[in-house]
Amino acid sequence: MDDSIAALFQRLTQGVYVVGLAHGQARNAFTAAWVMQVSFDPLLLALSINPQHSSYALLKQVGRSVSTC
Question: What is the 3-state secondary structure (H, E, C) of the chain?
Fold first, then answer.
């Protein structure tokens, strides 16, 4: 893993985050009040997103692991 990325996630703090998404030509962003690091190796983050938000559909298209509660 790139040392600069590792250093960034070692400083992950509480707050409100802007999460940007891109897939093909589609681009979107949303604010997330809940973001946490789940694993360092491999680097995994957990965040909350409303399934009715347009970014949720874009995130699903990217093909990453997305689960709903």
Answer: CCHHHHHHHHCCCCCCEEEEEEECCEEEEEEECCEEEEECCCCEEEECCCCCCHHHHHHHHHCCCCCCC
Pairwise CA distance, residues 11 & 5, whole Å: 10
Report field, pTM of the whole predicted structure over 0.85: no
How many other β-carbons are positioned within 10 Å of the β-carbon of residue 15?
A: 8
> How far, in Å, CA of 25 to CA of 56, rounded?
16
What are residue 35's DSSP bridge partners?
A: 47
Q: What is the pLDDT of residue 15?
A: 73
